[in-house]
């Protein structure tokens, strides 16, 4: 069973590298072995860096989006109930800061 799995994975890997190597041969006109090596490093190294960069950018955009949404919600709630909170406690702004931190 494990030999069949290994054989299938190996076959898929070779098919993937061969396809990309043939594309590199067509683009640059080099021999197959050099093109296979270039294709492998193109896929392995350059794309890993791109994936890392895209991941960090996405993480940053999601963080900013969360802060904007939470900030807008706190501002709307603050505008809706500001008079009630000030009348009861006199500390309205601090409570809204606690709500903002709690929702993040």
From TrEMBL:
InterPro entries according to UniProt: Choline_transptr-like (IPR007603)
Main location: membrane
GO molecular function: transmembrane transporter activity
Domain of life, source organism: Eukaryota
Intracellular or extracellular location(s): Cell membrane; Membrane
GO cellular component annotations of the record: plasma membrane
Transmembrane segments: 21-45, 60-81
Membrane topology type: Multi-pass membrane protein
Keywords noted in UniProt: Glycoprotein, Membrane, Transmembrane, Transmembrane helix
Functional note: Choline transporter.
Family: Belongs to the CTL (choline transporter-like) family.
UniProt protein name: Choline transporter-like protein
Organism of derivation: Macrostomum lignano
């Amino acid at each position: 069973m494990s030999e069949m799995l290994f054989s299938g994975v190996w076959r898929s890997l070779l098919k993937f590298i061969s396809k990309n190597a043939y594309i590199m041969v067509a683009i640059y006109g080099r021999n197959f072995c050099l093109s296979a090596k270039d294709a492998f490093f193109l896929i392995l190294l350059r794309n890993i860096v791109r994936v890392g960069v895209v991941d960090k950018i996405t993480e940053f955009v999601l963080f900013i989006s969360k802060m904007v949404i939470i900030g807008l919600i706190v501002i709307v709630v603050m505008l809706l109930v500001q008079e009630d909170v000030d009348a009861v406690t006199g500390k309205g702004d601090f409570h809204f800061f606690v709500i903002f931190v709690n929702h993040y």
